[in-house]
Amino acid sequence: MIDISFRNAGRTFHRLDVYLICEEDNFKNRDALKKAQNELDIHVGANRQVNESDIETLVYLRAMLKETMRLYPAAPLLQSHQWMEDCTVSGYHVPAGTQLFVNAWKVHHDPKVWQEPCFVIFLLLLLLISLNGRTKKTQAPHQAPVAGGAWPLIGHLHLFGGQEPTHRLLGDMADKYGPIFTMKMGLNRALVVSNWEIAKECFTINDKPFANRPRSMAMDLLGYNFLAIAASPYGNYWRESRKMPTIELLSNNQLQKLKHVRESEVKASIKGLFENCKRSSSHKVSVEMKHWIEGIVLDIIMRIIAGKRYTSQDSSDFQEHATDFFDLFGKFVVSDALPFLRWLDIGGYEKLMKKTAKEFDLVFQGWLDEHKSKRGSSEVKGDEDFMYVMLSLFDDKTKQLPDGDDTDTVIKAICLSLILAASDTTAVTLTWAIALLLNNRDVLEKAQNELDVHVGTNRQVNESDMINLAYLQVVLKETLRLYPAAPLLVPHESIEDCTISGYHVPAGTQLIVNAWKIQRDPGVWEEPCKFLPERFLTKYKDVDLKGQNFEFIPFGSGRRMCPGISFAFQVMPLILASLLHGFDFATPSDAPVDMEEAKSLTYAKATPLEVLLTPRLSASLYD
Questions:
Q1: What pLDDT is attached to residue 402?
Q2: Which of 256, 310, 334, 369 is most buried by a 10 A CB count?
Q3: 324-356 per-residue burial string, b: 16 or more CB within 10 A, e: under 16
Q4: Which CATH fold topology does 196-622 show?
């Protein structure tokens, strides 16, 4: 028995079972097979493969297919019908409600109609086998290893149902299957890369083929129908929408102009901590660090973008919905892997996303309407925020986006992209940095000594000091090596076939680069799992994080690399330096910090980081 299945994944499964007795004595149609192959040799030749344009000339082959469908129709009993009213068929009365079954198989085998109705000419099968033998090498390109354990339909999704963080699970799979392997995420094919040299090949030679993003429900419903920069398909809109913040906000020149915003917000937050210490009888304050850092970062980015402060009273509506918004972005949605299940809304995420997106949009639209009403008035001072800049850009008709999208929607989508990119990832990185310092007191002491030398204890930290704080900078680099905010880089999707590490990668394949695994590779890093900031002052001093050293890519690489890297390295050192300079650190129980990882979109701690802060400067310096 030979069983051939023709499948169109995610739609219809059409199965053709062919039973052939292939012994020479019983198989009587070799002459017909020969005719079909001769026809192919005449019209196609033996120097190329068959093209669809050849089919019109292959009369004998098409006749074979018709004979196949006569003998073995895909639906031997046609789909049943039901009468809506009484009728007469072949002289018989048929009442309403009667079901009709038509036996096409029997009709096709009627000896009164067909001569030799059961004469088997299933040469299509042998023809395919023959053609496969002729073109075996060209039709079976070298594929990357496939991870074991896939289940029908859902593929490897069942492996991700536990509490182990996904980057660690994929890291273990890389140890088993190699630095490049494929897996099935429902109906989606994914290529997992855990080696820096292969990652380099993806982001250099194959940067353009992998410039697209896979589609997801969150990016659709929460990302303004894929208008958010990180979610946008590769093309004109993505290029133009990315260009605006890159030039008008994130360039080194523009960031320098906004230095006063960063410094004033950080100093205000440090002062707030000191005021809380003063109110405490112990002159100490317990702070949940991630929440506190998120507040500062959102104050900075919202002030730059919309002239608002996250922690102020007039942003209470934003605060109310922000947590739900960020949480929903990190949810796994079943229909992203199995789109035909979207109508079930498993987990209720679609309903929640639509509700949250609507509430968030009202906030953004309110900001935008306020900016429109104030434009040109005396209320707008010398420093225009980014919303004013974008409104001015769209006044110039030459700056209209190429796809004709609504201007308001595009502005809101870009602002959302910047807030999302800046907030959670920065807070996650600084939280890990503080946790590592608390568990490595010698490193903490060195960082504070450096601050005392280059800043002193008679003033606060300024952004201009950062260039002198070499040790603090490498503390952050080592934190990003061990705990990249996105341990799995934002997925890419191939827009065309390409070759990676000698393997054929079909168009539509999702690319998952395990930065966490790459940055702990013992073949690259000495003592890769240890927190050793000094490594970036000695052997690895020339390794930077701008996407050109592929053994260290916490912000990604290539044309879809995170554009906010400069902003991140303006904000993170300033916040960390100000904290270390202004306060001594301790844990509430003086016990080591629990470094367990959460299973989340960004690389968060499983438990909140509670830190006891004690002022270490003169009280007058906190004003």
A1: 57
A2: 310
A3: ebbebbebbbbbbbbeeeeeebeeebbebbeeb
A4: Cytochrome p450 (1.10.630)
Of the candidates 369, 568, 386, 340, the residue with the CA atom closest to the CA atom of residue 473: 568
- C-alpha closest to that of 579 among 277, 222, 315: 277
Query: Which DSSP category does 10 fall into?
Result: T
pLDDT at position 120 over 60: no
Q: pTM for this one?
A: 0.77
| Tokens standing for residue 45 | 């030749």
pLDDT for position 489 = 94
Cα–Cα distance, 505 to 498 (Å, whole number)? 5
Where helices occur in 227-338 by DSSP H, the ranges are 236-248, 252-257, 259-279, 289-306, 316-329, 334-337
Share of the chain above pLDDT 90, in %: 55
Yes or no: say if 564 and 255 are a contact pair by the CB < 8 Å rule. Answer: no
Bridge partners (DSSP) of residue 14 are 6
- The Cα 324–Cα 357 span in angstroms is 10
For residue 77, what is the DSSP state? Answer: B
- Three-class DSSP labels, 141-185: CCCCCECCCCECCCECHHHHCCCCCHHHHHHHHHHHHCCEEEEEE
At residue 29 the predicted structure's pLDDT band, cuts being 50, 70 and 90, is: low
Cα 417 from Cα 494, distance rounded (Å): 22
Report yes or no: 388 and 380 within 8 Å, Cβ to Cβ.
yes
Q: Measuring CA to CA, how many Å separate 389 from each of 343, 396, 415, 493, 594?
A: 41, 11, 12, 32, 44
Q: Using the predicted structure, report yes or no on whether residue 27 has a pLDDT greater than 90.
A: no
pLDDT grade for 251, boundaries at 50, 70 and 90: confident
CA atoms within 13 A on the CB side of 552: 20
SS3 339: helix
Q: Classify each residue of 36-69 as buried b or exposed e, where b means 16 or more C-beta atoms within 10 Å of its C-beta.
A: bbeebeeebeeeeeeeeeeeeebeebeebeebbe
Backbone φ and ψ for 606, nearest 5 degrees, come out as: -70, -30
d(CA 277, CA 585): 13
Position 14 scores a pLDDT of 37
Q: Is 504 helix (H, G, I), strand (E, B) or coil?
A: strand
Distance CA(404)–CA(393), nearest Å, equals 15
Q: Residue 344 is encoded by which pair of tokens?
A: 């079930």
Amino acid at 557: S
118 annotated binding-site participant? no
What residue ranges do the domains of the chain occupy?
2-72+122-139, 76-113, 196-622
Kindly tell me the burial class for residue 380, based on how many C-beta atoms sit within 10 Å of its own C-beta (0-12, 13-18, 19 or more): middle
What are the residues whose beta carbons fall under 8 Å from the beta carbon of 290, sequence distance 6 or more? 427, 428, 431, 604, 605, 608, 609
Q: Is-contact 325 317, C-beta < 8 A? A: no
Start-to-end CA distance of the chain, whole Å, equals 86
DSSP letter, residue 23: -
What are phi and psi for residue 464, nearest 5 degrees?
A: -65, -15
